[in-house]
## 1
Amino acid sequence: MNTKEENKVRDIYKQLLEGWNNRDAEAMCEPFAEDGEDNTHHTLVAAKRDDKWCIILFQNTPAQFHGRPHLVQEMTDELRQWMNES
C-alpha cells in the first residue's frame, strides 16, 4: 500500500478511536462499511469502496467498566442503534 493510501486507513482508524474515546457512538460507527463488523481483538481491516476507505472489520478488547455493568449495556445498545440506522 502506498503512503497516501496507508495514511487514509490510519485516518479512519484514528476516527474510530476518537469516537470510542469520546463515547460517541455515531462518530465511532461513521467510518464502518454498511456490512462492517466489530469483534474483541486488536485488528482493523479496511477496504476502499467507491473511492472511499471504510472499515470492514474492527476487533478490539472489550471495554472494561469495572463495577459498572450498566455502562457496558448502554454502550452496546447505543452502538447497535447507530449501526442499524446507518
## 2
Amino acid sequence: MTQGSPFTILTHTDPAMSALPEAPGLLNDPKEKALRWKKEWQAFYPDRDSSYLLSAVEPKKLEVVNEKYNITGDVKTWTPPAVKFKSGSKSEQK
C-alpha cells in the first residue's frame, strides 16, 4: 500500500495482479499487534513493537488480472474483472 493511494495491491509469485480498490486502515495498537503476531515473522520484523503495522482491509471489490489463466481486463477500457462484496453477505461476481 502506498500512502495516499486508494488501492491495496497484492503481489503473487506468478505473473498476476490483484487490487483492492479501497484504502485499508493502518493499525498500530500494541494489544492488537500482539494478538495477531506470528513467531515466523521474527526474522522479518526483529523489533515487533516498532517495525510493523497491521492493515485492516474490508474490501468492497477485488480486481484480478492473471494472463496465465486468461483472466484479463477489457481490451478497450482496461477494466479488470472484479468481484464485488456485499457487507455481511455472499460476494457477487462482475
## 3
Amino acid sequence: MNASQVSGITKNIVGKFQERAGKLIGSKEQQITGRQKQSKGNAEKNLGDARELIKNALKQMQRSKQAMQYHTTATLFTIGKNKEFATSTNNLGRLQSVN
C-alpha cells in the first residue's frame, strides 16, 4: 500500500465522519464538505491503486525480461555445446579413417 492509498482512505473516513456530524447538527454545509472530502479521498485512493498496478506490472516485466535473458543464455550455451560435440565427433571419425 502506498502513501496515496493511505491518504485517500484517511480522507474518505474523515469525510464520512464530517458528513454524519453535519447530519446530527443539521448543517448542510458540513454534510457537503464531508462528501467533498470523501470524493477527494476516493480519487486519491484510486490514483494510489493505479500507481500500485503500474509498479507491479513493471516488476513483472523486469522478472520476465530476466527470465528470458536466462533462457536465451542457456539455449545459446546448449547450442554451443552441441556444435563442439558435433565438431569433435567429426574429427574423431576422420582420425579413425586415417588409421
## 4
Amino acid sequence: MLRQVVRGRERTLCRDHEDTLSSKYWLGRTLFDQQNYDGAKELFQQLADQQERTLGRDHQHTLATVRLLQELRINSPPPLPVSNTS
C-alpha cells in the first residue's frame, strides 16, 4: 500500500516534493519495523540523497533519515558465509 502511495506521489507531485519524501520515509520505517533491513537500507540511502538535495543536510527530516541509515549499518546482521563445497 505504501509503495503505491509513493509511486502516486512521485507521478503527481514529483520525486523531490516534501510530501513524496515523507511517504518514502514512512515506507522505509515500515520496512525497518518488518526487519526488511536490506530494503530499508536501500530506500533510506536514496531518500537521504534526495533530502540533502531538496531540504538540506541539516534539515530535521534529513537528519532523522541519516540516523536510521546509520543504525541500519551498525546493527545489520553480517552477511551469511558462502559455502565452498565442491
